[in-house]
Design brief:
Elements lengths: L1 H16 L11 E6 L2 E6 L3 E2 L5 E2 L6 E9 L2 E12 L6 E4 L4 E5 L4 E8 L5 E11 L2 E10 L4 E9 L1
Antiparallel strand pairs: 1-2, 3-4, 5-6, 5-12, 6-7, 7-8, 8-9, 9-10, 10-11, 11-12
Length: 156
């Protein structure tokens, strides 16, 4: 009886030790075993080896760059981007003045929304991140009825 128990324990240990996924931790995803390899399949809007990084994290920064609005440009313009504390695929621009929604790991849309500046009625657009360079394309509708198309290109 004792020998059967020891054999059963040894077999159980062998089965567990042969599982390549036994030590893999996926924080926001599931484990996938492919032969002898195990990897995390991340949930939407997460990335990294353990799926522990929100895709929005790489967009965060205090960018400085050029703004071009309807042919008029300025240099050394600031723009800050943060990730939303509660929505996985949301970016927050200019301390909450407007927001963007990720469409992929490197691009986002800015849905049409109101803007807190009294001279600006709405903003909409999109943008992308390439390395440390962000591009934001936005169309502002003024409270006076006109529109301005602006592009910001900056680095962190």
């Amino acid at each position: 009886m004792r020998i059967n128990f020891l054999i059963l324990v040894a077999l159980g240990w062998l089965v567990v030790s042969c599982n390549p996924c036994s030590d893999v931790v996926c924080k926001n995803g599931t484990k996938e075993q492919d032969g002898r390899d195990c990897k995390c399949e991340c949930d939407e809007w997460y990335e990294g080896e353990e799926c522990n990084t929100r895709m929005t994290k790489k967009f965060e920064g205090n960018y400085v760059g050029d703004v071009n609005c309807d042919g008029s440009s300025s240099s050394n313009a600031p723009s800050n981007v943060k990730q939303s504390p509660s929505i996985d695929n949301r970016l927050v621009f200019e301390d909450g003045d407007y927001y963007g929604v990720l469409t992929s790991s490197t691009s986002f849309d800015i849905p049409k929304q109101s803007h807190p500046d009294p001279d600006i009625e709405t903003i909409r657009g999109g943008g992308s991140l390439n390395g440390s360079q962000i591009t934001i394309n936005a169309v502002f509708t003024s409270s006076f009825g006109g529109q301005s198309a602006c592009t910001f290109t900056g680095t962190d």
